[in-house]
Amino acid sequence: MADPRLRLRDNAPGRFFVDSECTDCDTCRCLAPGLFARNDEAGYSYVVRQPVDDDEADELYEAMDRCPADAIGEM
Ligand code: SF4
Hints:
This is YtkI. By secondary structure, the chain is α+β, with helices and mostly antiparallel strands. It has a single domain (4-74), classed as 2-Layer Sandwich (Alpha-Beta Plaits), CATH 3.30.70.20. It has helices spanning 27-31, 54-66; strands at 16-18, 36-39, 44-47, 72-74. The strands form 2 sheets. It has a two-stranded antiparallel ribbon. A two-stranded antiparallel ribbon has the order 2-3. Iron/sulfur cluster (SF4) is lined by residues 18, 22-28, 45, 67-69, 71-72.
């Protein structure tokens, strides 16, 4: 389970976030490219935009389920 205390600063304000346990595996960016982006300098992903509808929320939950580092969370 992602830890809100480790939430990365890059995340867009809102309920979903990536924490500092991200291993930059690219899974979330492939599954939901409109919702996740990469910090190229630091080498991690973050939520670049919060979902605006149920379809996008489903994409994000899919990424959450498949994240091998359990680095995607919901507040
Ligand atoms: S799926 Fe998880 S570990 Fe992989 S890039 Fe996304 S947040 Fe990081």
